[in-house]
Amino acid sequence: MRRVTFIAVLISLTIAQTSGSNDPTPITSIGSNPYFSTDLYPQDILMRSGSYLFFSPQYQNRPWWGDVDEPTNKPDNGTDYSITGVDVIRNGGSFKHSAAIHSAITTIGYAHQLRDNLMTSLEFDYTVDAMRNRAEGNFTGDDYPQGKTLPFNYELRHTFNRLSVRGMLGTTIRDIPFGITIDGGFENTLALKTDLAFAKLTMNPDGTYSDSTAYYSMNGNEARAMWGWSESGCNHVFVVHGTQGDTWLQGEYAAGPVYHFNLLSGITLDKVKAGGYFRYKRGHQDQYIWRSSGMVVSNDSILSDNFIGEYVKDDMARISSAGEGRLFGNIRWRGGDRYSLNTFASIDYLDSATGQAAADNLEAESSAKEKIRSFSLECDPNISVKLGEFLNYFDGAILFRYRYSNYSNTYEQGVGGGEVRTFQRGYVSSNEYGWETTWERFSHANENAVDLGADIATMFPLFSGGPHHLSLNLRLFGDVRFTYQKKYFGDNTVSGGDLIYNDENIRKNSAREMMFNTFIMLHYMQGPCHLRLQFIKPVLYSIAQTTAVTDANGDILDDEYNYPVKKSPLWITQKGVTLALYASYDIVFPFLQRSR
Known about the structure:
It is built from two helices and 24 strands. It is mainly β and about 600 residues long. The strands form two sheets. It has a 17-stranded mixed β-barrel. It has a two-stranded antiparallel ribbon with strand order 10-11. It starts with a strand and ends in a 9-residue tail after the last strand.
């Protein structure tokens, strides 16, 4: 008999990601709701029933500083960049800027119950991250004649897309629930699309400006990508001092696919719910380097170098690989059918490397490597209380997570007829030892991070009568993270046939981050028909930071700006909002009926 059921339609507003490799495990992943806990324990798919086709489009909006390779990067942590939009008018000029990442996520899949103790699902996920950065203005300058301005209009368009296929199976082996999830796919970086138009006064040989105006317009691969727009001048990208806004230039970017493979398995025993996770990523991407055309316009060589040219494919490609393994379990200390007191514990290890190889021969790799090794330990006491029937519960957890990371930039140098691997030369940014820039190259670094927080999730009925049922799901998450980092800068010398590396400077960074999120979801059921509406809002985020540069012994350098530079708490969210629609249709396809 063919059984047809309209299962669910879900419209949701959520933040970007509530958890990740750098965040504590959310209570929803280890709690009572099998529609969330299968992310960590695939065997929980056995708690669902029926066979259904599901579809889930989502939309997300989050801030962006304009870096095309690392979307979370800012040029430095000491400047307030206008990521959420700004419109400034002063001194006869104007500056307007906005930038965001628009993510569209589409999931489609089918879950099938083969037997009472055998449940499977197959789903396809496709994500598009459309990055948009717009800036326009009418700058005045200290060196400009009275009443003269520099009008400009700039737009950057960049795109990431990701595709993955995920299969999940849950079954029982001698009445012990067991599950496995296999996930594979790729993420691909597309090429830049930029447009830039501006009119600039002509510079005379003596450094003054004439009244004539030179107009420039570039687009596509010929327009330079810019990022980190701010309301105050930084590098004077248009070579106009005293402007109302400024930005940085991007010299290169990578484009191409990176492939991933994930394996997750779990088992539920009498006193512990355990699992293991393995993830591997690898890819090679083409690198595009900005090259000036060498043409000088308007007697302004800096302008020519900055904007007259194009991005060309480099002879070297970017090679990256990363492996991550995790073991975890939720140990039940006390409880029964109505409640349980537990402790979730996990151990995680990450090893990643990035380098270069010849674009036409990937076996010819450069010896220079950027490596990250990270270890984390998590321990979260938690409680689960069953308030009533299925999907009627209270879950709460105290979060504690410690993470240690080691960063190294190494290469091989010839010494005494052989090759010796050592740290690359590091140098402190030449900005009076103030805030570091993203491109400040260090030799090696260590980082310690501690998370302390609380997380609760509950679901309870609001209305229940006849075939109709309405429930409310509420989640509150708060976390404080303390991060301490030391970056070492040094160089190598050859002495008596030996290669000796010595630290010369140390940069000490610290940060305190506070975040608080709320999650609200309405769940409506009418017999086999379900409807869920959810909302997650980042209510609070602040970060307070310090930095200082010392000599190799840790002593503060005698420099005007080298005392620990402090940044007062910056109240701005780092995560955006998502709109999603989830629908599933419970159906047993005819060719699968015999398996029921």
